[in-house]
Amino acid sequence: MSPGAAAAARQRLKSNGPDPRRPVPRPVFRWLRAFAFDPSRGKNYGNYMTLQVPFEHPLAPGPVGSYLAVVDYDPGNQCYYESVDLNDRWILANAGIAPTESDPRFHQQMVYAVVSETIQRFEYALGRRIRWRRRKYRHKSPFQGRLLVFPHGVQEANAFYDPNLHALVFGYFRASETDPGNNLPNQTIFTCLAHDVVAHETTHALLDSIRPAFMQPTNIDVAAFHEGFADIVALFQHFSIKEAVLEALRGTGGALFSEHLSPAAPPGKDGVRITAQIGQRNPLVGMADQFGDAIGLHRPLRSAIGTPPDAKALESMTEAHDRGSILVAAIFDAFFTAFVRRTIDLWRIAGISRERGEDVELHPDLLGRLCDEVSKTAGHFQTMCIRGLDYCPPVDITFGDYLRALITADYDTVRDDDLGYRAALVDAFRLRGIRPEAVTSYSEESLLWIPPESKHRLKLETLQRPDPNASEVEFAAIEKSNARQLHAFACANAKVFGLNHFNRRHIAVDSFHFVVRPNPDTLLPTSEMVAVIVERLEQPEKKGGGTAFGGVTLLFNEDGTLRYAVRKSLRNDRPEKQAFFRQLLWESVPRGAYEAMKTGQIDFRALHQRY
Questions:
Q1: Quick check: is 9 in a domain?
Q2: Are 104 and 72 in contact, with CB atoms under 8 Å apart?
Q3: Are 84 and 20 in contact (CB under 8 A)?
Q4: Do residues 221 and 398 make contact, with C-beta atoms less than 8 angstroms apart?
Q5: Residue 375 located in a structural domain
Q6: Are strands 48-54 and 29-35 parallel, antiparallel or unpaired?
């Protein structure tokens, strides 16, 4: 090769080679290790898992990111524990610290990972970023605008969301000395290491930001909805753990709704001789398993299964967790029914009768397909349950309202219910005596929220969509302008929305969001607008006193046309009903969970002390 040709070749290589000026792209995700259930499971059922969470930059030690700040102060021991730095090169290289009960830094990592994962699921389902409710601080806080998380916040058998601190507080305690279950007597139990407990408490915080007025216990279903909905979100996350789902399918013969798994080896004629002959609890359908054992219950604190359908059970249940368990049972009844229906063909192809499913060894290929279907179905149901929140009224929620919200939200997303999800939900709610108000039947068309009459087809075209890259100042200005327009729009149409025009000073825009959601019918994303208007009405003493809460949820098309107005009007007997319920709470002194009625909201710390 001539010197000229060689020089030309070197030049081509140089021009086509790597560009030293091109920056390395920032990672999209961060991988962090966590317990899938809690430490009591060891490495069984995929309990050592790796979570994929958004890669936040910057992320300070704590961790402290854009959504949450983990503050590891232990008030019992009056000390701070060393904060984990998730950007440490060795921690990054190892996908976080390995699961352990003894290192507080792993505790911090785990709560950060699970809270971030739960927020991510909500953002996907709702089609928008989560924005925490703004709070006024007496002093300037470095964590302003973030959810605080205290992994060792209290020395008691409890974990709770504190709306005043805007914080998740996780307790630690000693297991029972005489009846510790699978734990050691007096073993220290950390609630921050229970995946489902962390997801449950995070859901309370998210629900408070999405529907702040659900913190007002205006009827018997409100606190129960908070508890039941938090359980639903936490339990559905179990079904994303592939190894646990496979093991549960294998141990139940495909009947995932069974509470126990068959032992690996059947007991002999002389009874149980080895551990493999002992059946285990199904980890997918129970919540807070280690916690329940530690306090001597010999069972998880909550269950997805519940009791058999009973249309009269709601009439006698008043405690929030007991009542909420009926909502949980209804949702999971529909989920398991949908799963059974969508996998019937797989059983037929395999030549296995469902009646004798537990008596046969399921082929690995069948297990794999069943696992895919159950994870997919669980993801669909969790998304439906979260998305339904945007279709709920702003206040005074009932289980019947939630059923109508679920049906309408799913109908708007997928018109053809070919998988039978909506039909399964309606049947499950009906069998448990959950009866929506103002409907003529349990038919789908009756349960759908009714669009405004044609003469009230209102339109609001002047709202501005904020630029995602806008500064805080620009964003706040646009938000303020939109709030003014929405307030004027609500007051101008007060009669249509069931609001009191004379009370316009107490009509407030609680929240307003532009959302973008996937639409399987059109294969194109759907853009909508959701606004929440809340009305507060001070009641005279002769009508029970206190504050009555009403309002309307407005759902608009992308062009500003009003599609739904989900009302809770105060122009009827609702104020008197709310006053009567408040009086019942005041007279029910043992119900310490409602002591916060003095400040006007549910006290989750007291509520959770009842387990």
A1: no
A2: yes
A3: no
A4: yes
A5: no
A6: antiparallel
Instruction: Give φ, ψ of 511 to 5 degrees.
Output: -160, 160
Rounded Cα–Cα distance for residues 144 and 233 (Å): 26
**How far, rounded to the nearest angstrom, does the alpha carbon of residue 262 sit from its chain's CA centroid?**
30
- 325, part of any domain: no
Residue 321 pLDDT exceeds 50: yes
- Residue 450 covered by a domain: no
* Residue range 570-599: mean pLDDT, rounded: 70
C-beta of residue 558 within 8 angstroms of C-beta of residue 528: yes
Which tokens belong to 193?
């290491």
**Bridge-partner residues for 188, per DSSP?**
174
When divided into structural domains, the chain yields a total of: 2
Pick from 210, 232, 251: which residue ends a domain? 210
Residue with tokens 């205006």: 218
Range of the domain at 526: 456-571
Give CA–CA dist 252/435, Å, rounded: 33
Q: pLDDT tens digit string along 269-316?
A: 777 767 777 788 888 999 888 898 899 888 888 888 877 888 898 988
pTM: predicted TM-score of the whole model, two decimal places = 0.91
Tell me the average pLDDT of the chain.
87
Q: For strand 188-190 and strand 260-261, is the pairing parallel, antiparallel, or unpaired?
A: unpaired
Is residue 156 within 8 A of residue 294, CB to CB? The reply is no
Domain at 123, CATH number: 3.10.170
Query: How far apart are alpha carbons 595 and 85 in whole angstroms?
Result: 39
Neighbouring residues of 208: CB distance < 8 A, sequence distance ≥ 6: 133, 161, 163, 214, 215
Look-up of token digits 């936490």: 234
